[in-house]
């Protein structure tokens, strides 16, 4: 199967996931949770949350989407190379990992190594599951899936790799996702006199991503059912 066919299908689900995350994202909850010296700025932005969503949240989510797609490249390299050990790709995979790059500075020692191991194991499993698809003698994604897996296994594999929240659910306090908002860029006018505000949105990321999974995974499961009925 062509590598591009696998990429296109993954991109389709990932794009849906990001769109659903954006639709569920509550920027007001994030701003209301900020305080301290930035509270005045947060109050101003809270009254204009829609521009914040469009100019800050959406680009941030799109950047994460691209980072995940960038990580897919070395994972697919591993999937295509039947003679290679995953260790040969581990550094590149980890350097592009969304969660690894969001790891809090205070996470060190054994815990840091354990998280590193779990993140890599997750991507190695992804590559192992993609290997029979890229090796399949067909250019149709679902035909390759049916050739490689039975229906139950295909459903389990797809669900596992579309559960993007797993690392965050397992190690909630280990990661920090942040937004930096420049009021001048977002609102213009007199807001240019206000300082930038950096807010953490880790809790909201988990909540909105969870909502996205509730929409995307059932659709993917339905796609599997349809593929095996044809």
What letter string, H or E per element, gives the SSE order?
HHHHHHHHHEHEH
Spans where pLDDT lies below 50 across 5 or more residues: none
Report strand order across the widest sheet: 1-2
Report the radius of gyration as a whole number of Å.
Answer: 20 Å
Work out the strand percent: under 5%
Which structural category do the helix and sheet elements fall into?
A: mainly alpha
User: What is the average per-residue confidence, as pLDDT, rounded to a whole number?
Assistant: 92
SS field, number of helical segments: 11
**What overall form do the CA principal axes indicate?**
globular
Summarize the biggest pleated sheet. Answer: 2 strands, antiparallel
Q: What share of the residues lie within helices?
A: over 70%
Compose a concise summary of this entry:
With 230 residues, this protein is mainly alpha-helical.
Lay out the secondary structure.
Blueprint: H1 3-24, H2 27-32, H3 39-46, H4 49-80, H5 87-95, H6 109-134, H7 141-148, H8 151-162, H9 166-170, E1 178-181, H10 183-187, E2 197-200, H11 202-229
Antiparallel strand pairs: 1-2
Helix pairs in contact: 1-4, 1-11, 4-5, 4-6, 8-11
Commentary on this structure:
This protein has 230 residues and is mainly alpha-helical. Helix content is 70%, strand content 3%. It has helices at residues 3-24, 27-32, 39-46, 49-80, 87-95, 109-134, 141-148, 151-162, 166-170, 183-187, 202-229, and strands at 178-181, 197-200. Helix 4 crosses helix 6. The relative contact order is 0.17. The model has no long low-confidence stretch (mean pLDDT 92).
